[in-house]
Amino acid sequence: MSTLTETAAPVATAQGPSLLAVRGVKTYYGNIIALKGVDLDVRQGEIVTMIGANGAGKSTLMMTIFGSPRAREGSISFDGRDITQMPTHEIARLRIAQSPEGRRVFPRMTVYENLQMGASINNFAHFEQDLERMFALFPRLKERISQRGGTLSGGEQQMLAIARALMARPRLLLLDEPSLGLAPLIVRQIFDAIRMLNREEGLTVFLVEQNAYHALKLAHRGYVMVNGVITMQGTGRELLADPQVRAAYLEGGHH
Amino acid sequence: MEVFLQQLINGLTLGSIYGLIAIGYTMVFGIIGMVNFAHGDVFMVGGFIALMCFMILTAWLGLAVIPSLLLVLLIGMILTGLWNWTIERVAYRPLRGSFRLAPLISAIGMSIFLANLVQVLQGPRNKPLPPMIQGNFVLMGSESTTVVLAYKQIVIVVVTVALLIAFWWLVQKTPLGRAQRACEQDRKMAALLGIDVDRTISITFVIGAALAAVAGVMYLMYYGVVSFSDGFVPGVKAFTAAVLGGIGSLPGAVLGGLLIGLIETMWSAYFTIDYKDVAAFSILAITLIFLPTGILGRPEVEKV
């Protein structure tokens, strides 16, 4: 556990090079600065989380990785390749998948069609096989298969958004607040699924959460973001034990 | 009764032409939320391309009517599609992300440009086409009135139905159609899934223009003339059809087209032919006031 005053720049450690490396990224909405120089690494096989309050810039970071909005300063690279200026759809084709803020399920497409959309990056190679995997992971989706996305409950939409992202067989999965507005039982189900995918398939996950307790328990490492700046980083366990983190994000009954 | 039946046949024929044009309005509106006012003129350009192809194929090369009709449809769809692709690249894409009125004004400009371009290149007079398909079935006959079904009407309806089936299949069952619907519902999410949104929009313009080109061929065959100003009135009627059916809805565009065709022909038969356009356009005003989402349109609110 270290605050930024102690270690100025995060560097890739002995664990290997970064799959995703964000360096000094600044993002603006018009003239308003949303990210004030963010540095962050996600290595192959890790679950990394970023916690922070509403409006801290977490979702902006998720979308900036995809170039929408684009970073005005700094650089983002994936697997050693600079993607800072790459068009959004080409970034997606590098097999970075996102379950975005607000889920963004296609409302007038069936669950099946939504999943097809996720698989289009792969040209539907191993589509049937992946579909079965998703049904095993989220049996509810199988029951709802021919229902339109817009008619699903919030939890079902969240499962669909994650499953749609997984259909791309991503090398990096970005999850933006998968627990938002969901019943605790469903949150547990979703987090269990993420843990299982990481352990059994080595899936690399970058997870943004307000639900700090669950996120930090799940993640190998974590970052804390406040007002567009990363203020702390460390292993999940270190951050969970940190008094400042406890005071700001954990006291008050997330668990 | 005979008059009614005859006008029913005429109305459905005319309506299928409007329906084909209306699809182009509704598709473009669905995907980028813009009314493409140049679409009627694209239809007119399609008519002129068809006229030239017909003349070359039948008068110069001496091809029979049916193969030349098929060739005209194919060439017309390709060339008109290319036109609309260029229009989108030149006049609309640079304005994407600008304020909402900008592409609309650009579209009106493009409409004026196309009409005037054709006027300069082809002259202001009506261009006639010798009748391609003559003859008809007499369905009912009495001494005073007959009900006839012209062969060209059969061709128009058959081609339209075949095209609509192919088009429906494209939108519902192919990856391209799915990408198109995805862009229509959430462009940003589509990009996150690796869909090239700009390319999908371009393809939408090409498909819309191809359907308008077919409508242009049918219009030319039906009336036997085309002029540079023919984009405007059929264009606005097709737009009315799209609004009546529910803009953004593909079945709505076809239904709206048929209804506008019927309203226009019935009005001509039972009231006065001079006011047929007034009747059709009144529908636009009435729909916008009393049924702004159209017959098959969806309400704006969606369950989240």
TrEMBL record, chain A:
Query: What Pfam families does the annotation carry?
Result: ABC_tran (PF00005)
Q: Keywords, A to Z?
A: Amino-acid transport, ATP-binding, Nucleotide-binding, Transport
The answer on whether this UniProt entry bears the keyword Transport reads yes
Q: Which domain of life is it from?
A: Bacteria
Answer yes or no on keyword Aminoacyl-tRNA synthetase.
no
Q: Name one GO molecular function term.
A: ATP binding
Q: Any idea where the ABC transporter domain is?
A: 20-252
Task: Give the family this protein belongs to, as stated in its UniProt record.
Answer: Belongs to the ABC transporter superfamily.
Q: Return the protein name.
A: ABC transporter ATP-binding protein
Name the species this protein comes from: Alsobacter ponti
TrEMBL record, chain B:
Membrane-crossing ranges are 12-35, 42-63, 69-87, 99-121, 150-171, 201-222, 242-266, 278-297
Where does it reside? Cell membrane
Membrane-related topology note: Multi-pass membrane protein
Q: Which domain of life is it from?
A: Bacteria
What Pfam families does the annotation carry? BPD_transp_2
Keyword tags: Amino-acid transport, Cell inner membrane, Cell membrane, Membrane, Transmembrane, Transmembrane helix, Transport
InterPro entries of this UniProt entry?
A: ABC_transp_permease (IPR001851), BCAA_transport_permease (IPR052157)
For the keyword Lipid metabolism, the answer is no
Concerning its family, UniProt says: Belongs to the binding-protein-dependent transport system permease family. LivHM subfamily.
From the Swiss-Prot or TrEMBL record, give the protein name.
Branched-chain amino acid ABC transporter permease LivH
| Species assigned in the record | Alsobacter ponti
Lineage, broadest ranks? Bacteria, Pseudomonadati, Pseudomonadota, Alphaproteobacteria, Hyphomicrobiales
